[in-house]
């Protein structure tokens, strides 16, 4: 690992600078005298609170269905499963706005499922529920891919040994399979949370924009920036810091897990 | 995002139309005129740009359609535009001296749009306060939202929208897709949506008129071409196209 070609440093440094120059510019151009007032305004606090709460709920939903998905995909053979697996990873590569449109046509008031919900008196459009669903839609594949990858690289021998020792499938899952992938599970959870927190396109398309109900921090940043990009910087920095904490958490966890 | 892809489409249409217009030329270098226009001008300015490219074969017109505020911000941040047309004077004023000789070329007013045939029997602005109805409006950050807020202030009617959209086209989309029962948009958007919506007017809308100014952008190296485009918009060709799209003429 020590001996890498020296020329590699040039493009690597360019890449690092390219990524860091934007966040640096936000800090350089930050109207610091307005920072506290802007971030603590009721509108900003509402948007931040809503983003955090919805992202947390979305992350829980991702765990509830994502972990079972990962286990099924990792431990089942067959063409059908492989095709389904490829399809459900679609939100990873779809532009989020397309995801929002898809949700609209599925769960919107006239959607293929939404019309029946509407008849039953359940409306999702323009509610906080719609925000959570949009976030879950885009964040779920991150968790699935992370956990599934880890499961595939673990040795199934442990599970077979557990079985020969008399553990049932459920007991094996809880006591052997999942503990083996805890670092990836945590990493996937944090990534899904970060993705949910930053979700914009699917939310504004599917859930709309109403302060206090559906206007999460990214939506507020976008609307603030329409008239005055500087006004959007304080909230943008807060999201950047949260994202940074998340990234650091993800990258320290597996490293430590490998080291021990 | 939707608006951006729509504007990309608009640009593609204009550019390809320009290419057709220039097909007689050999490889002669053409000038590109960058026109920044409010989203509500999409149809009208696409047509006017076509007309311009037909007359001036050496010039390709590229129109960047987006919310007025976003366009002004782009120019403030150094985007190279030759002509700018916004949906209200307040937004244009943000450019200060960067907007050279702004002139009003059309006006627009608000209207209520509903699903086809007005299934909820909305008769006026006050009907929208019915809590059973879901109404969408523009966010106050964009001109149509500012106009809506002014109407609310004038009438004392306090709408409780289910969403404040970032562009007028997003409001139309929420109504045409059936997500919302009603929306407040420009007369021109209602007309542009054709039979996918029904329009309901209210006397209060006549009080709030958005005037559309057009200006050359200071520092553009193509002042002459820009002036000719502005003249085309202000002249009879522009007036006819704009009228056909539902705009009212500028006050004399």
Automatic annotation (TrEMBL), chain A:
Domain of life of the source: Bacteria
Pfam families for the chain: BPD_transp_1 (PF00528)
Keyword Cell membrane carried by entry: yes
Keyword presence, Cell membrane: yes
PROSITE patterns according to UniProt: ABC_TM1
Domain ABC transmembrane type-1: 48-250
Transmembrane segments: 7-28, 48-74, 86-108, 120-145, 176-197, 231-252
Membrane topology type: Multi-pass membrane protein
Entries under CDD domains matching the protein: TM_PBP2 (cd06261)
Role according to the record: Part of the binding-protein-dependent transport system for molybdenum; probably responsible for the translocation of the substrate across the membrane. Part of the ABC transporter complex CysAWTP (TC 3.A.1.6.1) involved in sulfate/thiosulfate import. Probably responsible for the translocation of the substrate across the membrane.
Family indicated by similarity: Belongs to the binding-protein-dependent transport system permease family. CysTW subfamily.
Protein name per the record: Molybdenum transport system permease
Automatic annotation (TrEMBL), chain B:
Keyword annotations of the record: Metal-binding, Signal
Signal peptide: 1-19
Coiled-coil region: none
Record bears the keyword Signal: yes
Pfam families recorded: SBP_bac_11 (PF13531)
Family: Belongs to the bacterial solute-binding protein ModA family.
PANTHER family: MOLYBDATE-BINDING PERIPLASMIC PROTEIN, SULFATE-BINDING PROTEIN
Protein name stated in the entry: Molybdate ABC transporter substrate-binding protein
Organism, scientific name: Gordonia prachuapensis
Encoding gene per record: modA
